[in-house]
Amino acid sequence: MVLNMILWVILAAFAICIFFRFPYLYQDVKYIVRNLRIRRRVSHYIQNNYTIVDCFLERVKKQPNKPFLLFKDETFTYQDADRLSNQAARALLQNGLVKQGDTVTFFVTNEPMFVWLWLAVFKIGCSAALLNTNIRSKSLLHCFKCSGAQVLLFFFFFKSPDLEGAVEEVLPELLERQVTVFSLGSKQTSSGIHGFIDKMRNMSSEPLAEDLRSHLNMHSLACYVYTSGTTGFPKAAVISHTKLWRFVMILRSCGLKSDDVLYVSLPLYHSAGLAGVTGAIDLGITVALKRKFSSSQFWDDCRKYNVTAIQYIGEIMRFLCNTPKKPNDRSHKVRIAIGNGIRANVWRDFLNRFGNIQILELYGATEGNIILMNYSGKIGAVGRDNFLHKWSFPFALIKYDVEQGKPLRDSTGLCIQVPKGEPGLLVAEISVRAPFLGYARDLQQTEKKKLHDVLKKGDVFFNTGDLMLIDKDGFVYFHDRIGDTFRWKGENVSTNEVADVITQVDYITEATVYGVEVPGNEGRIGMAAIALKDGHTFDSEGVFKHLESFLPAYARPRFIRIQSSLDVTGTFKLMKAGLVKEGFNPSAIPDPLYFLDDREKKFVPLTMDIVHAVLSGKIKI
């Protein structure tokens, strides 16, 4: 009896010591066990050539009447989704417009039709190119060409006809390339654009033959997901069926269950939105789909649909925290928030205001081969450094010379790992287990993302482009972007590439682009300092039209500063530090300043009244 008591005391003391020595051990073990199970599941799927469509069809058999998609006041069951996607598939196959192995391009907003089409394309053994609906003109054409597709599907609704206008702008070139263009809208479209809805409604909803996708394997192309497109020329990241499963498993890794309801307000052309819908199929859960994020409607939607899990990017959380406080702020069923880019101060404000919601901050890139997750709730961290990550996704933080723009190497030519507590460039080893598939039809950009001879001769690592830091407790923190990059509206913007677009204007001799902080806003907004040819004046409307053609809205500089010449270093590198520090204050800057006015569709002289309106939020940027 006494011996047993002593033994229990010793065990309790040992457990207490372990807890204080390793306070996150339980969470680490729980996360590792869950992800080992997920790895086995994915390996089984890969070995058996089991795609996400196979998973969907299995869900249809098991739970045909369970709600799959909630949109506005409509409810679509898993069986509804199956039948509608069967009709869409047959409409695509009719007259041989689409055949096995083809790529179909989507230029579609968040609508149930996006999901039906996506399923349809997979059911007939094809792949999808998911275009960012913000791109226009030359960017739109470039992205379409990257896909190699011959069919373009686009959707517009009566409140937002701009997608139709964007397609009509490039329609002559599309028709010249013999591209078939379908409108998913409900009204008559212009000549050269075919209606799809009526064609689809006349099709049978019976199951399609499995032989249509018999040629697929797990290395086959599933879809192209485009990078942010900092110059309006985004890169098409190649997503195979194996890589798609890694997107799919994010929700399972986050601990979602079959009775959860996921709110998706992020665009479905984005990897996060795609992961939400595909992850829902894997778990058999219900998705509440929003056409576009609305901070004023967010929590009302969560209450309406009994949402238990939400997705976010950092901007979304800040927008929610900035809405007027309401007595029912904590009246909801949300238990989990999954996303990336939330700042520590916003994280605290969000929890204090909206209640005890588990925030699972992720780190990753669409084309990347590494994913990190902060599963412990440590505010500000993006992940944990544990042996599972080192085993699944071998990575390292290496010393990086920001001035030279390249990693530091030792006398043997290998990279140098940084100690804990010091920021370093995050690189992840490219292997069969963690591949980097690159970008479609862009070998040069694909190779630029690779680093050779990192930890040993002959190895190859993926360069994330991010400086990270690991603290003494093993938490990983985002530190900064390397190179001339800033983040705005949840998108990464390359300043060098934006400057290249600006200098395409023939009378602009030089341009340097940088991000400046605007109080009350996440990230940095774009500003450009430019020099003009002698005798030329700044064409505010012409420059606006040029930028609109080549750049998505978030990458267009909102402020322009005109200088007689731009300062350079001794090695002729443009100097930006002083420009960043000076910002956009007209009272402190002698140079002419301009502000991009979306309503006027031109750059207007920047006055203190405009500055005050921007800082107070009267002018939305």
Describe the structure.
An 8-stranded mixed β-sheet has the order 2-1-11-10-12-13-14-15. The chain has 3 domains: about 40-365, 3-Layer(aba) Sandwich (Rossmann fold), CATH 3.40.50; about 395-480, Luciferase, domain 3, CATH 2.30.38; about 490-615, ANL, C-terminal domain (GMP Synthetase, Chain A, domain 3). Helix content is about 35%, strand content about 25%. It starts with a helix and ends in a 5-residue tail after the last helix. The protein is an alpha/beta fold. Helix 6 crosses helix 7 and helix 9 packs across helix 10 (about 270-285). The mean pLDDT is about 90. The protein is globular and about 70 Å long.
Q: List the uncertain runs.
A: none
Q: Give the radius of gyration.
A: 26 Å
Distance between the termini: 73 Å
Biggest sheet strand order reads 2-1-11-10-12-13-14-15
- Helicity, as a percent range: 25-40%
CATH topology of the largest domain: Rossmann fold
Count the helices. How many?
Answer: 19
What class do helices, strands and sheet pairing give? alpha/beta
| Domain unit count | 3
Secondary structure: number of strands:
30
Transmembrane segments: 7-26, 113-132
Domain AMP-binding enzyme C-terminal: 497-573
EC number: 6.2.1.3
Domain AMP-dependent synthetase/ligase: 58-378
